[in-house]
Input
Amino acid sequence: SSGINAEYGGGCATRLHAMVGNLEANIVSETYTKETVDALKIVHGELEDTRNTLEREASNISHRVEAYLSLGDEFIHLVDEYTSLKQSLETYHWAIKNVGGN
Output
């Protein structure tokens, strides 16, 4: 009796699995027409191209940063000094332009 019930349950499960597979295939074929699939392939390709471009650009920037860091502390000090002097110069230019009634 339990063997028959197990066979019946297994058969039901197999039929249910097949029905779900058919239903899924029907939904997919109704949702994704050939035109939709073609459009999605184009969008996917464009996204892949964009991602690849961004990865290349990020890699290039990373290599440039590594090159600067390899120059050592002296270079970092020079960059900091340059940034500070540039900001001071901009401040003086702003003050000259905006002070003194000109």
About this structure: The CA atoms of residues 18 and 32 lie 21 Å apart. Residues 34-70 form the longest helix (37 residues). The mean pLDDT is 86.
